[in-house]
Amino acid sequence: MAIDNNATKVITGKVRLSYVHIFEPQITDGGDEKYSTAILIPKSDKETLRKIKAAVEAAKEIGKTSKWGGKIPANLKLPLRDGDEERPDDEAYAGHYFLNATSKQKPGIAKPLGKGPDGKMKFQEITDSTEVYSGCYARVSLNFYPFDAKGNRGVAAGLNNVVKVQDGEFLGGRASIQDEFADVEFDDDLDDDEDFLS
């Protein structure tokens, strides 16, 4: 069966990124190096959720013939999870579905610049790894595909491209330098530095 990439491809609405590892790959449980990010989708974004569910169904149909011997397994692992149920203590996940997207190849990472003279959107590549972080907002291109690995069967989300659209509060429990040191006096330290340099 030919794989219809359009049926399994989704470009999200505005989502929030968490556990961002898109500039450098991380070693996974299976020992592979993969780029990855968790994607938090607001439950109010019905259109993105509808597109993801349709893409997952298309990936299931592909898997039925290409991976699972003609039938869809009953205990299939699916990518879309409920943040309210699975992460009840994490306020960032409240009111969101989430999924983890991975890729063996580095995803494209950019920000939109606006439309050019031809009417098409133009983008600038982002190379500074501090610019795309856990907590910022993006639109993401995903591809859903079936898998059968070591007895685990399911549909996974492949990570294609990430377009950052907005800054957000940093996730991960680390405060910014500005917040942590805003009220600390550094005058004595700065004087010492000047002595040290002279």
Structure description:
This is DUF2815 family protein. Pfam families: Enc34_ssDNA-bd. The protein has 198 residues and is an alpha+beta fold. The chain has one domain: OB fold (Dihydrolipoamide Acetyltransferase, E2P). The chain is built from five helices and nine strands; from the N terminus they run αβββαβαβββββαα. Strands 2-3-5-9-8 form a five-stranded mixed β-barrel. The protein is globular and about 75 Å long.
Describe the structure in brief:
It contains 5 helices and 9 strands, in the order αβββαβαβββββαα. The protein is α+β, with helices and mostly antiparallel strands and about 200 residues long.
Detail the topology: elements first, then pairings.
Layout: H1 5-8, E1 9-11, E2 15-27, E3 33-42, H2 46-66, E4 81-82, H3 83-86, E5 96-103, E6 108-115, E7 121-125, E8 137-149, E9 152-166, H4 177-181, H5 187-197
Parallel strand pairs: 5-9, 6-9
Antiparallel strand pairs: 1-8, 2-3, 2-8, 3-5, 4-5, 6-7, 8-9
Question: What are the defining features of this structure?
Answer:
single chain; 198 residues; alpha+beta; OB fold (Dihydrolipoamide Acetyltransferase, E2P); 5-stranded mixed barrel; disordered C terminus
How would you describe the shape?
A: globular
Class by alpha and beta content: alpha+beta
Can you tell me the CATH class?
Mainly Beta
Q: Find the CATH topology.
A: OB fold (Dihydrolipoamide Acetyltransferase, E2P)
Query: Mind summarizing the main beta sheet?
Result: 5 strands, mixed, barrel
Low-pLDDT ranges: 193-198
